[in-house]
Amino acid sequence: MSGTCRAGISRVAPTRGRPQGFTLIELLAVAAILALVAGLVMPNLGGIVEWRLRGEAERVAARLELARQRAIVTGVPHRVWMDLDEAEFRIEWWVSEDQEAGGGSEFDLTGNTPLPLRAPRQPLRNFQPIPGKFGNREVVADPFYFERLETPDGPVTQGEAWVLFERDGSASYTEIYLEDKKGHVLAVDVYPLDDRVRIRDDV
Question: Whole-prediction pTM value?
Fold first, then answer.
C-alpha cells in the first residue's frame, strides 16, 4: 500500500506589536516627576536672581565707598555719576583738564621766559572721570537697572544723577534703588557722616 506522506506545517499567527505611545499611567508618572523637579528648581531660580541683584548692589556700593575714600585722601570732591536711562555709572572728580591729564604749570620755570605780572589764570574745573578703570562707564548687568534715586531734593527716576562726596567725605543722604522687571528690589543707602554705605532689602 503506497501512500503519500505530507509534512505537517504549522503556522503561527503573527503577534501584534505593542501600540505606539504612552499609557495613561506613564503620562501621569512623567507629569509627577516634572512637577517635582519644578518644585525643587523654581525656588532656587528666584534665589539666583536675588543673589545676582545683590552682587550688582555690592558693586555700586563699592564704587560709592571708593569715591568717598578718594575724596578724603586727595582733598578733591568726588562723585558717582549715574545715567538712569542707560543703567550706567562711573566715578568722577572735580579737576581741570590739565590736572586730569597730569599736566603741570603753564609757566617756564627755567628762567628763560619772563614771568607775567598778571595773576595766573585759574584753570576751569569740572567733573572729569578719574584715572583708571573706575573712571570708565560701567553698566548694571541685565536684567537689572536703576529704578530711582531718593535725594533730599526729591526722587530722580530718569536722566543723569549723582552722589557727591565733599573733600571731607561727607555726602547728602541718598537711596539708590536697583530693581528687575519681576519686582526684585534692593536699596543702596549712603549715610552722610559716618562713612557708611549700606545695602537694604526691606523695601
Answer: 0.68
